C-alpha cells in the first residue's frame, strides 16, 4: 500500500487527441503495460455508452492494445454483482470516459466495483479519466457550475467524488470554457484543497504525490491556502467573492508539481517517464 | 500636479448597463460634476461614431447632464487642430467608447488633443473609457490576443497606450471572454505591471494610487511581480508559458486596491464616494 505500489492516475481535461499522435492516450497505455495492457473502458458517465465505448476501443486497439473491452453500468445492482468485478480485477488500466460525473459516483459509489477499483489501484491498477472522468477522481468534486463569470457563492455545485486522489479539486476544459471563476468559488470553500484546472487535450499524470503535466495546454494550480482574506463568511447566494492572495501556478507539458508541499518543481522532467 | 488635483479615472470592462440603474455611468457623471458636468463622448475608437455617440448622449442626458456632446476624430490632422481642443478644455468629463484601442492611440497619440487630455486630467478632468476605451488608459496596453487559451508566447499583442495610468495592463470583458491566459501572457512579459482583468458591467474608479471596484462582476488583479520562476527566456512563438507563483486577487464591488503597495485594502469603502 505504499506510494510505489499504487497505480498512476492519468487525469485528462477533456477533448484529448484521438486521431493524431494521441500522446496522452498512449501514455496511459504505456503506464498500463503497453501492448500487454488489459484495458477496460468504463462508459458509466455517458448516456451513449455504445458509441463512446466503440470509439475508445478503436483508439486503444490502434495504439496496439490487444485486450480492450468496454464496461457499462446502468444500475447500482449491476455494480454490486460479484461477477461485475472480474473485468476490473483482471485489468491493468481502467479508462473513464466523459459524460456526467454524478453518474459515476451515484452508480458506482460504495458498490463492489468501487471497492475493486480502489483495491486494484492500491496494487498498481492505472486509472485514467477524461472530462467527467477527470472530475470524479478527487474526494470532493465539482459537479456543475457556471462558466465565464467571476467567483460567486452558489455558482458551483460540489459533491463527494470517487476518492482516488486526496487534497485536490479538479476542473476540466479549463481555459477553453473560462472556468477560473468556478474553480476559485470551489477552492475558496475548501482552501485546504488545491484547485487543478486542466485544459483540453492536456493531462496530469499522478504518481505518488507528484503530478506531471502533458499535452497541448496547461494546468492552472489554484492555491487558496495562501488566502489572507475572503468575504465568504457573510454572503448570500449569488454574491460575488472577494479573495485576497490566491496563489496561481501555470504548468505546461513537462512541468511537475509536488502535491504534498503544494509547490511546483522547478526542473522539468527529462522525458515522458518519471518516478 | 499632485494626486489630489488629478481627475478620477473610471475604467469599465465593457457592456456596462445603459438601460437600468446605470450605476457605473452615473458614477462617472457624479465625479464629473453631476448635472453641471460637461461631458464629451469621444467616439474615436469606433467605426460607428454616429450611432455609438448618439446612444451615449441619450444615456448621459437621461442621467440629467445638460451639456453632452460627441467628439469624433478621423485623422491625425484633425486631432492636431488647435480648435479641436476647445471641447476637451471646456469639459469636466471625457468618455471613451468601445471599438479598437489602436484607433485611439494611433489617431490621438502625440497630437494636441492628447496633450489637452493630459493637461486637463492633471487639473481634474475626469476620464472614463469602456472596453477599448479601458484598454488604452495604461502606458502599455493589450491590443489584441487569443482568448480561452493557456498563456502562450505571442498570443497577445501589446502597444503603447495613452498613459493616463502607470504600472498596469488592463484587460476587459475579462471573465466573460476567458481572458486569464492572455492577461497572464501580457504580465509575464511585464512583471512590474499589474494585470487588471475587468469584467463586463464592472469598473474601477482610480483616484490617486487607489482603485475601487464597482458594478456587477469583479476585477482580477494578476501580480506577476511575485513570480519565482518562468520559462520566458527560451521560448518560441506559440510555446506555452510556465509561471510559478503568480499572485491573484479577486475584488468585487466596494473593494479597494493600493496600486503603489500592490496590495488589496481589507476594509470595503463605506459608500460610493471615496477620497
Description:
The structure is a homodimer of 275-residue chains. With 275 residues, chain A is α/β, with parallel strands linked by helices. Chain A has a single domain (9-259), classed as Rossmann fold, CATH 3.40.50.880. The first copy, chain A, is 24% helix and 29% strand. In chain A, the strands form three sheets. A nine-stranded mixed beta sheet of chain A has the order 3-2-4-5-1-10-11-15-16, sandwiched between helices. In chain A, strand 8 (168-171), helix 8 (180-189) and strand 9 form a beta-alpha-beta unit. The longest helix of chain A has 15 residues, at 49-63. Chains A and B meet through helix 8, strand 12 and strand 14 of A and helix 8, strand 12 and strand 14 of B. Strand 14 of chain A pairs antiparallel with strand 14 of chain B, so a sheet runs across the interface.
Number of strands of chain A: 16
Per CATH, what is the topology of chain A? Answer: Rossmann fold
Instruction: Give the percentage of residues in beta strands of chain A.
Output: 25-35%
* Radius of gyration of chain A, in angstroms, nearest whole number: 18 Å
Report the CATH C-level class of chain A.
Alpha Beta
Query: How are the strands ordered across the major sheet of chain A?
Result: 3-2-4-5-1-10-11-15-16
